[in-house]
Design brief:
2 domains
Length: 147
């Protein structure tokens, strides 16, 4: 094999994925950044099994979440891919400065081939959009800030 392979496992990510399995009742979940993939499988009362697949060249680490809590942030309820519009050529669900009503769709997160609408928990104005279209998101990651 050419190059070195970094087999370092992010313990916190594995614990978060395992907790998400428990919370949702799913039996497996896979998380990917580039070609690096982590798959957590739950097979009953035993501890979750972890499978790690890495490319030959190590990928750059994902940016760390800000230490301070963002006031008014709507957070990702799951791991997946964020999409800001319903289809590739369609306009975004919301734009910076838009007024939104409670229950209005802000974006969607694709998880396990299912499109999950992320709705505004309250009325407000879109102050910030913190994710790019097609970007992977983690559980609890801030997505949109409402004022």
């Amino acid at each position: 094999m050419a190059g070195s392979t970094d087999w370092t496992v992010d313990d916190d990510l594995v614990r978060t994925l395992a907790a998400l399995l428990e919370e949702t009742g799913l039996t497996e979940i896979e998380y990917a950044i580039g070609e690096r993939r982590i798959r957590v499988v739950r097979g009953g009362p035993a501890a979750p099994a972890v499978t790690l697949a890495m490319p030959a060249a190590a990928q750059p680490a994902a940016a760390a979440a800000p230490a301070a809590e963002i006031v008014g942030a709507i957070k990702a309820p799951m791991v997946g891919t964020a999409y800001l519009s319903p289809q590739p050529e369609a306009p975004a669900f919301v734009k910076l400065g838009d007024s939104v009503r409670e229950g209005q769709t802000l974006l969607i997160i694709e998880a396990m081939k299912v499109m999950n609408q992320i709705a505004a928990p309250r009325a407000g104005r879109v102050a910030r959009i913190l994710v790019a279209d097609g970007a992977p998101v983690e559980f609890g990651q801030p997505l949109v800030v409402l004022e």
